[in-house]
Amino acid sequence: MKPQTKQKIAFTCLGLAAVVVIIPVIVIFVILIDKGISAINWQFLSTMPRMGMRAGGIYPAIMGTVYLVSGTILVALPLGVLAAIYLVEYAKRNWWTRMIEIAIVNLAGVPSVVYGLFGMGFFVIFFKFGASILAGSLTLAIMILPVIITASKEALMSVPHSFREASLALGVSKWQTIRCVVLPNALPGILTGTILGISRAAGETAPILFTVAAFYLPRLPKSIFDQCMALPYHLYVLSTQVPNVKESLQYGTALVLVGMIFLLNLVAIIIRSHMRSKKQW
Amino acid sequence: MSRSDNTVKKFFEKIIEKIILLNGFACILFVILIFFFLAKDGLALFKVSSPIQFFFGLLWNPLAEPPQYGIVPLLLGSIMVTLGAIAISVPLGLACAIFIGEIAPRWMREILKAGVELLAAIPSIVIGFIGMTMLAPFVKNLFGLPTGLTALTGSIALAFMAIPTIVSIMEDAITAVPRTYKEGSLALGATHWQTIYRVTIPAASSGIVASIMLGIGRVIGETMAVMMITGNASVIPHSFLQPVRTMTATIAAEMGETVIGSDHYFALFAVGLVLFAITFVINFFADMALHQQKK
């Protein structure tokens, strides 16, 4: 066979593989929208579930996820950004820094259910927070820390060295340089990474199973020591734990969850492309 | 600016630097804490059950009298689902990464990359839900099985969850191969395809290996989708068309029903410790491979 013919066959196969990867994504979205859209209306989004979750809305689950995500971001953002500042601006190239990097890689690889176990053992039982928004947010925060650190590191490293040198040459201290010169320039990158981290936290179920999620709680949580419902766990409950739930209710919940995550991702993409077009260097 | 003002500033600056330093170390602290808290409760199992019974026990049945906490069926379940998922996702992912990195025109590349990112963004619970309602009946009818919730169904769903990880790291590795390598090969008269599989792929091999390992790590730790799709029968699996139960699903499904401090509770933490150890080793070596690639 001629090499050119071989190449044609090979490239066709590779292209087909790419199609096989992309088609399920489209199919999943089409199915979700097709079967879920009929359930979605203002009442579905804004009322409490009724009749053992077989009717009514998913308001407490949506709000629970919003609370959890807000708590997560309050903890993970400062922690992650400061850790990234340490790694990029202060750390020397030695085995200690390498250890931190290995720790980050491993945190990124810890299975989500193991985070759930850890959160239960550490926050719920050891710190006696009980199953609460606090324990759940802290667990999720540690889980998304690697995402935020990695994105922030890249954003900080992409700020040109000459910016720092110019500031330092003016007699400005190192921390002031970081705060007033480096961070503002790295901000869009940090935001993008943070939003992607949140969208991960919003969709996770396993870490919140034993740390916060309430099976059925038709009211809003009163404090951060309260349990709450959450969208991903609610979908799990509707699809496996409660018999005879209307299909549209399940697909509607899935669609709201995916829609929320999709919106977050869209915001991240917009910030990223905006940042690229504005970049002067 | 007065002198004392300056000293205050220097002092402030020192404090800030210390805080930043602490945050850098926090990651190491978290890894140690996770290990410690898993080990604390996990190793407590061995007061009532010997390690041999745990690591070589062929039966996992906490409700039996006496309860059986043998990890073998769960471990085999995890390995089986993972092998299946990797067998599907690695060839597909590699082909997709080569297509995106080397062949596709620019506009198609952007669409494909966005599609892969979108796939990564779908939560595992949604994949599990779709797998349960759409994929499982399909597998059931295709093979004429009593149930569609099998290891194969789980493998297919997990393959698509591993593909984004695999594709993005492989594509990075492929595009990082120096241009001069490819140009040298093309100048010798090799076709584009010959260059890809004789030059580019071997040069990117350590990145490709790393992507496969990270894919394995992703799949073996996946919980919700697996729990909903694989059928959760804790028996030693014999075929891909049977229900299996993984380590992750066992923890997620049983933890809610255990009493804190009971043997069953400790046994689940012991399973968690095993999972943590497995993913730790996988990620450690994947990072080594990636580091090598950079050099």
From the structure above, extract its key features.
heterodimer; A: 281 residues; mainly alpha; MetI-like fold; 2 domains; 11 helices; globular; B: 295 residues; two-stranded antiparallel sheet; 1% strand
Task: Describe, in plain words, how this protein is organized in 3D.
- The complex is a heterodimer of chains A (281) and B (295).
- Chain A is 75% helix and 1% strand.
- In chain A, helix 3 (59-90) runs antiparallel to helix 8, helix 3 packs across helix 10 (231-241) and helix 4 (95-109) crosses helix 6 (133-157).
- With 281 residues, chain A is mainly α.
- Chain A has two domains: 3-38; 40-278, MetI-like fold (Orthogonal Bundle).
- Chain A has a two-stranded antiparallel sheet.
- Chain A has helices at residues 3-36, 42-46, 59-90, 95-109, 112-126, 133-157, 161-169, 174-203, 206-209, 231-241, 247-278; strands spanning 49-50, 55-56.
- In chain B, helix 4 packs across helix 6 (151-175) and helix 6 runs antiparallel to helix 9 (205-220).
- Chain B folds into two domains: 3-47; 53-294, Orthogonal Bundle (MetI-like fold).
- In chain B, 75% of the residues lie in helices and 1% in strands.
- The chains are: A mainly alpha (281), B mainly alpha (295).
* Rounded radius of gyration of chain A (Å): 23 Å
Q: What's the architecture of the largest domain in chain B in CATH terms?
A: Orthogonal Bundle
If you consult CATH, what is the topology of the largest domain in chain B? MetI-like fold
**Helix proportion of residues of chain A, in percent?**
over 70%
CATH homologous superfamily designation of the largest domain in chain A: MetI-like
Task: Quote the beta fraction of chain B.
Answer: under 5%
By CATH reckoning, the class of the largest domain in chain B would read Mainly Alpha
The percentage of residues in β strands of chain A lies in under 5%
How would you write the strand order of the largest sheet of chain A?
1-2
The biggest chain-chain interface is: A-B, 82 and 86 residues
As laid out across the biggest beta sheet of chain B, the strand order is 1-2
Which secondary-structure class do the elements of chain A indicate? mainly alpha
Task: Indicate the structural class of chain B.
Answer: mainly alpha
Tell me the major beta sheet of chain B: 2 strands, antiparallel
Radius of gyration of chain B: 24 Å
